[in-house]
Amino acid sequence: MPVLKPEEILRYLNAKGFLSSAEIELVNSRWSVEKDGPLLQYLGREKLIPTEVVDDLITLIGNSQLEGLEPQLPGLVLLNMIGRGGRGSVYRAWQPSLRRVVAVKILSKALSSNREYIQRFLREARVASKVQHRNIVRAYDINKKGSNVYMVMEYVSGYSLGQVLRAKPKIELAHAVEIGRLIADAVAYIGKVGLVHRDIKPDNIMIDRKGRVKLCDLGLARPAGATNLTSPMVAQGTPAYMSPEAAVSPEIDTQADVYSLGVTLYRALLGKVPFENSDPVEVLRMHVEVEPRGLDGGELPGALQDLIRKMLAKRPSERPAAKDLPRELAALQKTIPGMEKHQLWELVPGGEPTAWTGSEDSSLSLEPTAETQREPEEGQAPAKFKPWEDPALAPRPVAKKRGMTGMGLGTLGFALFVCILYILFVTLDGPPEPPSDPRVPELEAEIEKLQSEVGTADLERKRMAALMQEAATRLKLENAEDLARKELEPKRDTTTDVIDEIARMRESARTSTIPGAGD
Question: Residue 80 — φ and ψ, nearest 5°?
Fold first, then answer.
């Protein structure tokens, strides 16, 4: 196969939106193969193209697949398949128009051929695309090209919690609780706008190389209480992480997500799931009937054991409310020494410590999650006799010494002013109401339409079922009446009937052989 020259590679990268004309001029003025090595690796090192796509481009160009992998989708270049499951395949892709790496999920052929599934999936995915939260993978677009139905999503350069747990059975306490708190914040958000994720598990929790945590696969979420019209199965989700109510009915609310997150924390902290069996149906039965074990073995702090046990309660009403769970996990981080230090980037190969910028905050503000309330309450003493509860083992932050400049004094004055305002608001009148997000009414309207659509379909099915039942009942009555009528008719003697019929046949034969008979 022909090998592209460097100038041809640069033209290709420019045509696909990887490099601008100005960047190409810069590369031509600086790069040389003798000094800098192969061109694509150089572009990755210099951050001129995303480092995660360098190997993909080398493979595609080497195989002369300049338009990307099949199937070719408008406005996208599929670079590499990064996952495959029962519902479809996931690709890393390049979106030239916005010069960004995205993830593209293409539904399986079996699901793509189900018209009812596709209609509802498109509707649900459009609702999910309006959700914006820093701990949720964003769904950008949903579309159909030929027989391919696909969703374009935010790409997370990192690993799933499932991959991390397959490499080592369990993770550190501080890491697990911080991941749980961030995902709980996402669950509270989607619950506030009326959605249920329905499939929270380690494989659907992504951790990027900067330690940011995101819940993915939200495109499969549905409104709370919606029946499962997008699947012929009643129970949808992963059996090991499914709530008891989800195992027996599709009509669930966000408390089912609280249960699944509890199972996820159990798995991350204890190295196993609460219920294990080779038969998925048996696992579902255990979720419904069997109490989880292993939480009282002394491996975890008592307060954390109690919280996970509550999250795994059989009755949804006995679990912590989704909106309160982030604060409960944050409270644990305050009261258990050593929990405030969680470098999540350490979990990911190639991770790098980077501060989380405020620009990525949720666009819908929820109630504060005690992020600024790390100090224990006055008079509260930690429990004794366990190493994680010994204050001496809690790491102490080291303050850097620096001179107090004019800028520092001004910043300190502003900080004191903010603290005074905070005290006035919190201690006197409670926390201020979170600002409203203008997208929420639009999102709620979309969800209301979807719920109405689901309800209409349910009513139509119920009406048809009632009509069929009525028709069946009427038919049974008619059959019964016919039988009764026949029973009431006088019985004729069979011998007499035969003799009469023979006589009629003889008479008919006689008249048909006489010339002129019947004229």
Answer: -165, 140
Is 199 an active-site residue? Answer: yes
Can you tell me the distance from the alpha carbon of 348 to that of 468, in angstroms, rounded to the nearest whole number? Answer: 58
What the block records as the tokens of 243 is: 């709530």
H helices of 295-371, where? 302-311, 325-335
Reduced 3-state DSSP string for 86-148: CCEEEEEEEECCCCEEEEEEEECHHHHCCHHHHHHHHHHHHHHHCCCCCCECCEEEEEEECCE
Q: For residues 204 and 125, give the distance between their C-alpha atoms in angstroms, rounded to a whole number.
A: 17
Tens digits of residue pLDDT in 222-278:
565 554 444 433 345 689 999 999 988 878 899 999 999 999 999 999 999 999 999
Catalytic residue among 185, 199, 203, 217: 199
Q: 93 with 101: CB under 8 angstroms?
A: yes
Of 148, 138, 80, 72, the residue nearest 109 (C-alpha): 148
Instruction: Tell which residue, 221, 228, 252, has the closest CA to residue 125.
Output: 221
pLDDT for position 384: 36
Stretch among 45-49, 201-205, 358-362, 495-499 having the lowest mean pLDDT: 358-362
* pLDDT score recorded for residue 228: 47
